[in-house]
Amino acid sequence: MEAALGHAILTVWGALGFDAELMARYGPRVVDGLWTTLGLVAVSCSVGFLLALPLGVALVEGGRVTRALCLSFSTFFRGTPLLAQVFLVYYGAGQFRDALDAVGLWGVFRDAWWCVAITFTLNTAAYQAEIIRGGVRSVARGQGEAAAALGLRRGQTYLTVILPQALAQGLRPLGNELVLMIKASSIASVVTVYDVLGATKYAFSRSYDFEVYLWAALIYLVLVETVRRVWNLLERRATRHLRPREA
């Protein structure tokens, strides 16, 4: 599948009039970088969402200490640059090599890809938690009261009543967060991860042909536009019960 998609991408590039020799030499490396980018975004956004669910609920339902801890986490990762966070994890992990080696985690933190994936996950979890918190607060209080009147426990109420409505309300900002993560993934190239931009920088350093950056811009544009269109379909389907029926 990867080979077929890579061939299709190179064919499209050729049809657009890009330099065939340059494309044959560096195109496969850029396609490999595309898979790296997709992997980073998929892992960070999916795991970040799993972390954001309890964080978002805790920001609403937690006690004073719990809310303070969750708010501190959210404030730090939303208030500091993503690039600085990547540097803190990638370069800072080496300061604790002995401790990480003792617990068997140095093998993870010595790999630039995992450092970036962990940083992206924590960063997007903070943003998604705030989106979920806003969605939960948008659900009318009467929904929870009605569920309690039916004998549902608090956990059951959240799983079956509150969270589905909160996520439906937050679909649009969650989609925006996914788009932002796709574009922000280019930061990974700064710490030697050969994603789309990393592979493009390598190609430019060997060829000095600015055309390779047009490849990268086109790839990011296609990714973002694809996600936008797919997310629009998901949002329309998830919120179809909120729209008035046609006559």
Automatic annotation (TrEMBL):
<keyword id="KW-0997">Cell inner membrane</keyword>
<keyword id="KW-0472">Membrane</keyword>
<feature type="transmembrane region" description="Helical">
    <location>
        <begin position="111"/>
        <end position="129"/>
    </location>
</feature>
<comment type="similarity">
    <text>Belongs to the binding-protein-dependent transport system permease family. HisMQ subfamily.</text>
</comment>
<dbReference type="Pfam" id="PF00528">
    <property type="entry name" value="BPD_transp_1"/>
</dbReference>
<dbReference type="InterPro" id="IPR035906">
    <property type="entry name" value="MetI-like_sf"/>
</dbReference>
<keyword id="KW-1003">Cell membrane</keyword>
<feature type="domain" description="ABC transmembrane type-1">
    <location>
        <begin position="34"/>
        <end position="231"/>
    </location>
</feature>
<protein>
    <submittedName>
        <fullName>Amino acid ABC transporter permease</fullName>
    </submittedName>
</protein>
<keyword id="KW-1133">Transmembrane helix</keyword>
<feature type="transmembrane region" description="Helical">
    <location>
        <begin position="178"/>
        <end position="200"/>
    </location>
</feature>
<feature type="transmembrane region" description="Helical">
    <location>
        <begin position="33"/>
        <end position="57"/>
    </location>
</feature>
<keyword id="KW-0813">Transport</keyword>
<dbReference type="GO" id="GO:0006865">
    <property type="term" value="P:amino acid transport"/>
</dbReference>
<dbReference type="GO" id="GO:0022857">
    <property type="term" value="F:transmembrane transporter activity"/>
</dbReference>
<dbReference type="GO" id="GO:0043190">
    <property type="term" value="C:ATP-binding cassette (ABC) transporter complex"/>
</dbReference>
<feature type="transmembrane region" description="Helical">
    <location>
        <begin position="212"/>
        <end position="231"/>
    </location>
</feature>
<dbReference type="InterPro" id="IPR043429">
    <property type="entry name" value="ArtM/GltK/GlnP/TcyL/YhdX-like"/>
</dbReference>
<dbReference type="InterPro" id="IPR000515">
    <property type="entry name" value="MetI-like"/>
</dbReference>
<feature type="transmembrane region" description="Helical">
    <location>
        <begin position="69"/>
        <end position="91"/>
    </location>
</feature>
<keyword id="KW-0812">Transmembrane</keyword>
<dbReference type="InterPro" id="IPR010065">
    <property type="entry name" value="AA_ABC_transptr_permease_3TM"/>
</dbReference>
